[in-house]
Write a structure and sequence with these properties.
alpha/beta; Rossmann fold; nine-stranded mixed sheet; globular
C-alpha cells in the first residue's frame, strides 16, 4: 500500500488576519503556519492504512509508504516534518515562491510529480487531499489531479476502508448525503478528498519527532503552468463592531437581568 497525502501550508487562525502590502498573500509573520484539520485527518488515514497493511503482510512492509507532499516555499518543510512526526514515511516539497499558483497550476505540478515517481517505479495506490483548502476554501485541486491522472475521485469522505478484491484493492468511502450516508466503492488507484471527522489525528510522540527530523524530504522545483482563474488581490471584510447593552448598575440591574433571562428561555415566564 502506497499512499500520497497532499497538504497545504496555511496561516494559523489563532491571531488577527492581515494582508501583505501587495494584497496577494496573508501576512502570517505573527500567527505562524499549519495545515487544515481536513488534511490532518488525511495524514492520519494514510498512516493507519500503511500500519494495517504492515500488520496484514509483515513481509511486504518495506513496500508500504505514506508520503506527504506540499507546494510552497522552503519554509513549508516545517509542515512536512510535522506530518512525518505523525507517522509519514517520506515527504516531497514542490518548492516555489507561491506566486501565480492557482488550482490549475497546482494540480498540474502534483500530477507531474506523480508521473515522475511512476516512471521511477513508485506508483501510488491512493492519493488523499483535504476536502478544501483551509485558507481559500478552494476544493478543485484533488478533482483536477484525478482528471489529469485519469482515475476516479470521491469527495467529502468521512469514513474509509480498503480491502482486497480479487487481484486488486477496493476502497469503500462513506460521505454525508441527504441526511444519511452514501457508500462509494472504487477500485484503486483512486483519489479521495477527506473531511474532518474521518478520524481523530494522533499527537506526535517524542520518537516520532526525532524520526521526522531524519526522514527524507525530496525537493523538486515544479514548472509553473497557470490556468483558470487569476487572483487579482485579497481583501478583508470590514470588522463588525460589537454592541454592549448596559442593563444597569448594582441591585438596580436585577429586574432587567431577570427579564433578559426570560427572553432567552433560561427562566420560565
Amino acid at each position: 500500500m502506497k499512499v500520497l497525502v497532499c497538504v497545504k501550508r496555511i496561516p494559523g487562525s489563532s491571531g488577527k488576519v492581515t494582508l501583505t502590502d501587495d494584497e496577494q498573500q496573508v501576512d502570517a509573520r505573527h500567527v505562524g503556519f499549519t495545515i487544515s484539520p481536513h488534511e490532518e485527518c488525511a495524514v492520519e488515514a494514510a498512516v493507519q492504512l500503511v500500519e494495517a497493511s504492515n500488520a496484514s503482510s509483515p513481509a511486504d512492509g518495506a513496500g508500504n509508504s505514506a508520503t506527504v507532499l506540499t507546494l510552497g516555499p522552503a519554509d513549508a518543510e516545517a509542515q512536512l516534518r510535522d506530518a512525518l512526526a505523525l507517522g509519514g514515511t517520506d515527504a516531497v516539497l514542490l518548492e516555489t515562491d507561491e506566486t501565480g499558483w492557482d488550482a490549475v497550476a497546482t494540480a498540474r505540478a502534483i500530477s507531474a510529480l506523480i508521473d515522475t515517481h511512476r516512471a521511477a517505479g513508485k506508483t501510488y495506490d491512493l492519493v488523499l487531499f483535504g476536502n478544501e483548502a483551509g485558507d481559500t476554501a478552494d476544493f478543485q485541486v484533488g478533482i483536477r489531479v484525478a482528471h489529469l491522472q485519469g482515475v476516479p475521485c470521491v469527495t467529502g469522505v468521512k469514513s474509509l476502508s480498503v480491502n482486497a478484491d480479487g487481484g486488486g484493492l477496493v476502497a469503500e468511502a462513506g460521505r454525508e448525503a441527504l441526511g444519511g450516508t452514501e457508500i462509494v466503492e472504487v477500485a484503486l488507484p483512486a483519489m479521495l478528498t477527506i473531511k474532518e471527522g474521518l478520524n481523530v489525528p494522533r499527537y506526535p510522540s517524542v520518537p516520532g519527532r526525532i524520526k521526522a527530523k531524519r526522514a527524507p524530504v525530496e525537493h523538486v522545483t515544479p514548472e509553473l503552468r497557470p490556468g483558470g482563474v487569476r487572483r487579482v488581490k485579497l481583501s478583508l471584510p470590514p470588522e463588525q463592531p460589537s454592541k454592549v447593552n448596559v442593563l444597569g448598575n448594582g441591585p438596580d440591574a436585577a429586574p432587567a437581568v431577570v427579564e433578559m433571562l426570560r427572553a432567552i428561555g433560561v427562566l420560565e415566564s
